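Example S7 (structure tokens).
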């Protein structure tokens, strides 16, 4: 049993650490990304069966993110107080319940409730895994293990494309979610039974003091200098990549279900490559004098250019643009906003670094909720197409709005005089 393995009582070899610590938590992060992205394939099927509007579909998918956002601030405190093993296990069981309810759901309200529980249950997928890595692995291995963790999330995103479509070819979408519920219970049990318990240093501050620290962050001008460009760009990327890319490929590019799934697989591969290489490329560019800030800003400008290209393609005024490479560039560059995290965290005392990250995540995932739902509401302004899809003009206007938000975030970054960028 994991409870019998205490810090100092047992020394785990590197391979044992990989098997007993990394793999179970990587499984949780894999599920987090799989649940986050699976609606890109399943969503249109559900919308067709239940006659959901684009706004309904956007709300259903975005329900995951509103719960994900709501728990970010208390999550950091809970991880410090109770440890990632206990927190992750309990939350995954909630996710399993949510997946089961989603499979049983027959109305928008029932499906939304299930989706909200899923979002709540996988909310510790990243933060819990980062916490367990810092507890068990030496500091020199943190970049490597964090990169491997991101790769596990990328694999979850990959499984939500062509493999999910293949699963729908042999089973119903409720059956798929019942299977996912069972797998989630299995991962929760694996974490509880296999991951060793390592007591963290006691948390001295009470809840009130820790909440006051969040207020200190929220009043900081530099935090608000970085937050808009980070939150708007990452929220734009996640909102589109986890739902609307599939309908776009159907309605604008004219792809069938099989071709769409293959295209989304390549797009997910590009996203995974972005997560894996962003730190490497940033490090190489630092050697020639470019800071993390310069690299992140350049990537955001290129991402904005991709968004403009997708708006033009949606409007039919850029027919010469190769669609799939453009989407892959959108996904690859969309990951580079994570470079703003170390810029933010190093601007605050070390003891606030976790709450800086969760505060930024709270704002970003809250924005995902509104953008993903908002795109659906925008699409509903146009009549449905002959095949039941959404009008390309709706996508064009949606991307133009996102471009405006991104440009405003970048402009504020350059105009603000709050503490010089690091």
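Recovered sequence:
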């Amino acid at each position: 049993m994991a409870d019998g393995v205490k810090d100092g009582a047992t020394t785990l070899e590197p391979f044992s650490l990989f098997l007993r610590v990394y793999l179970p938590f990587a499984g949780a992060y894999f599920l987090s990304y799989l649940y986050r992205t699976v609606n890109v394939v399943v969503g249109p099927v559900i919308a067709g069966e239940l006659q959901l509007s684009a706004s309904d579909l956007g709300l259903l998918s975005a329900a995951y993110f509103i719960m994900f956002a709501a728990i970010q601030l208390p999550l950091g405190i809970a991880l410090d107080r109770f440890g990632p093993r206990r927190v992750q296990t309990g939350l995954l069981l909630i996710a399993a319940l949510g997946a089961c309810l989603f499979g049983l759901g027959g109305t928008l309200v029932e499906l939304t409730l299930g989706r909200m529980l899923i979002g709540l249950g996988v909310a510790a997928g990243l933060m819990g895994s980062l916490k367990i890595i810092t507890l068990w692995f030496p500091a020199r291995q943190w970049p490597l293990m964090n990169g491997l963790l991101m790769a596990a999330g990328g694999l979850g995103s990959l499984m939500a494309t062509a493999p999910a479509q293949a699963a729908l070819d042999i089973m119903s979408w409720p059956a798929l979610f019942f299977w996912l519920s069972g797998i989630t219970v299995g991962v929760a049990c694996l974490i509880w039974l296999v991951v060793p318990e390592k007591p963290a240093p006691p948390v001295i501050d009470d809840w009130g003091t820790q909440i006051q620290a969040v207020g200190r962050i929220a009043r900081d001008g530099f935090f608000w200098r970085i937050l808009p460009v980070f939150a708007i760009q990452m929220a734009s990327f996640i909102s589109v990549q986890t739902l609307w890319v599939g309908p776009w490929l159907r309605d604008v590019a004219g792809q069938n279900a099989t071709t769409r799934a293959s295209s989304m697989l390549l797009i997910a591969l590009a996203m995974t490559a972005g997560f894996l290489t962003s730190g490497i490329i940033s490090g190489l560019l630092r050697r020639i004098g470019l800071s993390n800030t310069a690299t992140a800003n350049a990537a955001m400008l290129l991402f904005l250019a991709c968004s403009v290209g997708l708006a033009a393609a949606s409007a039919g005024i850029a027919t010469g643009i190769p669609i799939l490479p453009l989407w892959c560039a959108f996904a690859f560059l969309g990951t580079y906003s994570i470079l703003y995290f170390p810029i933010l965290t190093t601007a605050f005392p070390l003891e606030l670094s976790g709450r800086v990250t969760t505060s930024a995540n709270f704002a970003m995932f809250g924005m995902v909720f509104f953008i993903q739902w908002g795109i659906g509401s925008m699409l509903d302004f146009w009549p449905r197409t002959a095949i039941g899809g959404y009008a390309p003009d709706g996508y064009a206007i949606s991307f133009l709005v996102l471009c405006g938000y991104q440009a405003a975030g970048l402009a504020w970054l350059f105009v603000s005089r709050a503490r010089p960028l690091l």
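Notes on this example. Residues 205-422 form a domain with the Growth Hormone; Chain: A; fold (CATH 1.20.1250.20).
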